[in-house]
Design brief:
There is one protein chain. The chain has 269 residues and is mainly beta. 5% of the residues lie in helices and 58% in strands. It contains two helices and 15 strands. It is globular.
């Protein structure tokens, strides 16, 4: 079989942290459009490619996010005091401006190549190579990277309405031009997810994902803390070959994960 996926994702971020000798401001929105193709190769192998397009800027979701947080009693983290729909990423250390990115930009992100092997039923070993096709100056990638991980399907009966997975692995990245002296090159990560079929054509989805801190030698929470994200969504199959997915993500680890993400995808096989 082969499968392709076209997705659109909007992520909005705001974090302001002032520590002794350090200042970090992250304020902006990223729109990510991606095309993914995956092809089976024999009984136990597959390969794939993902091509992302990124648009970064001030966006338009600030007022919506503030209303969302207010409705559910969630903290805005100072977002309500910042200018609306602005993009600025600034890091100052010991009085030296290490990073200052502003304005909007559109371009190719880092293309990834993937391969997988199933050594046993319910198990999949996966690998990924990230190509430096993005623009480092606009924080859109631009460095080499690779990852190895294992996926395991949870042992639900085939007749059950429930399904799920656990996943764990490690990634390694070339030092980026941005904050290279603080970057952790090797990052463990993992996740767990569940789905339940509520209707013949509809599944509800939930996923918890976490990764180790991306930076070290800093007191800024957005850099030194692990990232933890909780995602809820649904999948509606309009035919045997075509499904629509809609999901949203919230940050369980405030500052070190994006405030909010909304994602839509069309899947065909």
């Amino acid at each position: 079989e082969s499968r392709w996926r076209a997705s659109a994702e909007i992520t909005t971020e705001y974090s302001l942290d002032l520590e002794a000798g350090e200042q970090l401001l992250i304020d902006g929105e990223t729109q990510r459009y991606a095309f993914v193709y995956r092809q089976a190769w024999g009984e136990a192998f597959d390969w794939g490619i993902e091509i992302p397009l990124l648009h970064t800027g001030g966006g338009f979701m600030d007022s919506f996010i503030e209303g969302w947080h207010d409705a559910f009693g969630l903290p805005n983290g100072g977002r309500e005091s910042a200018p609306q729909d602005r993009r600025q990423v600034r890091y100052v250390r010991d009085g030296i401006m290490e990073l200052d990115v502003r304005g909007a930009d559109t371009g190719l992100g880092d293309v990834t190549l993937a391969a997988g092997w199933s050594p046993a039923e319910r198990w999949m070993l996966r690998s990924q190579l990230k190509l430096p096709t993005g623009d480092e100056d606009q924080l859109a990638g631009g460095n080499w990277g690779a990852a190895l991980w294992a996926d395991a399907a949870l042992p639900f009966d085939e007749t059950s309405a429930w399904g799920g997975f656990v996943s764990a692995g490690v990634s390694a990245n070339e030092d980026a031009a941005v904050l290279a002296q603080l970057q952790n090159a090797v990052i463990p990560f993992g996740g767990v997810g569940f789905d339940v079929r509520l209707l013949p054509q509809f599944q509800a989805l939930v996923q918890l994902y976490a990764h180790a801190p991306l930076y070290d030698d800093t007191e800024i929470d957005a850099l030194k803390r692990p990232g933890v994200q909780l995602t809820f969504g649904g999948r509606w199959c309009i035919s045997e070959a075509h499904c629509l997915e809609l999901s949203f993500q919230e940050d369980l680890a405030v500052a070190s994960s994006p405030d909010f993400s909304l994602r839509f995808a069309l899947v065909s096989r």
